[in-house]
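Entry 14. Structure prediction run on the chain below.
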Amino acid sequence: MKRKYNLSKAVTQEQADKAMEEMKKITGFGEAEFTEDLKGLIVTADDDKITHVMNRSVNIFARVCDETKISFDSFIFD
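Output returned:
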């Protein structure tokens, strides 16, 4: 199941690339993609690891994306 998250502000492509690079190293991470406007993020992860993945992601975005915050928006059912 995919989960959509809103970012508190748009990030640059460089910041998005750096955040994605670091997220890929998180245990349990599946895949992620940014929305076209770079203000949203769609994430898949192992169900039992999603909390871990997103806790780490919050820290990554705060560090590499100028204190950008992540908030849950919705589930995406395929």
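The longest strand covers residues 70-76.
Filed with the rest of this week's runs.
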